[in-house]
Write a structure and sequence with these properties.
- The structure is a single chain.
- This protein is of the alpha+beta class.
- It has a domain of about 40 residues: 3-Layer(aba) Sandwich (YefM-like fold), CATH 3.40.1620.
- It contains 3 helices and 3 strands; from the N terminus they run βαββαα.
- It has a 3-stranded mixed β-sheet with strand order 1-2-3.
Length: about 90
């Protein structure tokens, strides 16, 4: 299915149940236009949640990279030494 088949004018929301069924079956988002311009996206919940989890994972990776760049990280050896020192 081409991307063009996933674009609908806002008037299509009168058939909301049909559009929801379509996104559930295809797992492809539908772009809703208003006055010829993109206005919203209709997406199934499973795809949305997968994207949110992927985004959160990427954010954690970026935060980790920033911590390393800013010297706010420790090596595994440093963590092990600190753990041994506190368990004594």
């Amino acid at each position: 299915m081409s991307t063009m088949s996933h674009i609908e004018p806002i008037s299509s929301l009168k058939r909301a149940a049909e559009l929801v069924q379509r996104v559930r079956e295809s797992r492809a988002p539908i772009y809703i236009t208003q006055n010829g311009k993109a206005a919203a996206v209709l997406q199934d919940v499973e795809s949305y949640e997968e994207q949110r989890r992927a985004f959160a994972l990427l954010k954690m990776c970026l935060d980790g990279d920033r911590a390393i760049d800013q010297g706010r990280s420790k090596t595994l050896a440093q963590l092990r030494r600190a753990r041994r020192a506190t368990s004594r």
